[in-house]
Design brief:
68% helix; 15 helices; globular
Length: 346
């Protein structure tokens, strides 16, 4: 699921950044119309992973927060600085708006929302970072909940995530996040995680045959929202992402031996690096196309983009995400403090 989510966003941005290839074919039109669904998958999956991770290896609030920040910050910072170098090295394509300023860059690195050059948007310098602002808020909320509620941390998070969008007025900074219905997707992931942990029989291998049913159901919801409603809204995307997650969990025991499963698992492992590095890579490719240094057909352009993003993802994963320095920092962050067995969600 992580690989699917990351690459949906990759293809979605490709057709936004590279104007030489307007979405005229069915495949390209589908990717533009539904590619942003990858973000919804990420948010729902994040909620599930947090419950599952804290159930398998309980830890105190401090260790949890340090671990999560070290999980997302190093690769994001590396990708952001790579984008800074690109901005000062080549002219940005006409389809890319990113106003550089030290203050904005610092806010981006610290996961703080701000107004971008495009009116009405709150995008960091590296545009994909807006989702990480939500992730960091989610981690902070879990940290506070673990600190104050111990083993009952999950349900207070669910209640706040579901109620905040209805109670908080949309403003800048934290208000922008608290008023967003994307928070409901984190809550949905938490609920699925709680069901998975507390009622494993609901996801037993004997029920694997329900997996395809949920996957088809998710596709129907997504397509119905896009066609019948003229656009897939948060509600449809949330439901589809939850159905997709449940379907994937039901099929978990059947994945061994599937053709291409090794590649899929590898793409899933490096999916975070793919997510944060693909935008700078695509900007470089778009520059080559606009400068007429490269004149190729759409399929070849897609193949070049996929190969470049994949290679960059592998490099970022190996050099940053799994570097000895980052691993050592994670170990240091996990050592202090008392391990709380009570953190396991109930």
């Amino acid at each position: 699921m992580r690989a699917l989510a990351a690459w949906l966003v990759v293809f979605y941005h490709f057709y936004q950044i590279v104007p030489e290839f307007p979405p005229t074919s069915f495949t390209s039109f589908f990717l533009v119309a539904f590619g942003s669904f990858g973000v919804d998958i990420f948010f729902v999956l994040s909620g599930f992973i947090m419950v599952h991770a804290l159930s398998i290896r309980p830890r105190n609030a401090r260790s949890f927060l340090v671990e999560r920040l070290l999980r997302i910050a190093p690769a994001y910072w590396a990708a952001t600085f790579a984008f800074v170098l690109i901005v000062f090295s080549v002219p940005l394509p006409s389809s890319v708006n990113s106003e550089f300023g030290l203050f904005h860059l610092l806010k981006s690195l610290l996961f703080v929302s701000y107004i971008d050059a495009v009116p009405g948007t709150r995008a960091p310098f590296l545009v994909v970072g807006w989702t990480l602002n939500f992730e960091v808020f989610f981690y902070a909320l879990i940290t506070a909940s673990v600190l104050f509620f111990g083993k009952m941390w999950a349900w207070p998070c669910v209640m706040l995530l579901l109620s905040a969008p209805f109670l908080v007025e949309a403003k800048l900074g934290l208000g922008y996040i608290l008023s967003s219905f994307y928070l409901c997707e984190f809550a949905a992931g938490l609920v699925v995680g709680l069901l998975f942990v507390r009622h494993p029989r609901l996801f037993s291998r004997q029920l694997w045959w329900l997996g395809p049913v949920f996957l088809v159901w998710a596709a129907v919801v997504l397509l119905w929202g896009g066609v019948a409603l003229g656009g897939v809204f948060v509600g449809e995307r949330l439901i589809a992402a939850v159905l997709l997650l449940v379907g994937a969990l039901l099929l978990e025991g059947k994945r061994t031996g599937l053709p291409g499963i090794g590649i899929a698992l590898r793409l899933g492992k490096i999916s975070y690096s793919t997510y944060v590095i693909h935008f700078p890579i695509q900007v470089c490719i778009a520059y080559l196309f606009e400068s007429r240094f490269m004149a190729v057909s759409e399929p070849i352009a897609l193949a070049i983009m996929v190969l470049a993003v994949w290679l960059a993802s592998e490099m970022l994963y190996r050099l940053v995400e799994t570097s000895p320095l980052v691993d050592r920092l994670r170990q240091l962050g996990a050592e202090p403090g008392r391990k709380l067995d009570a953190v396991t969600p109930r």
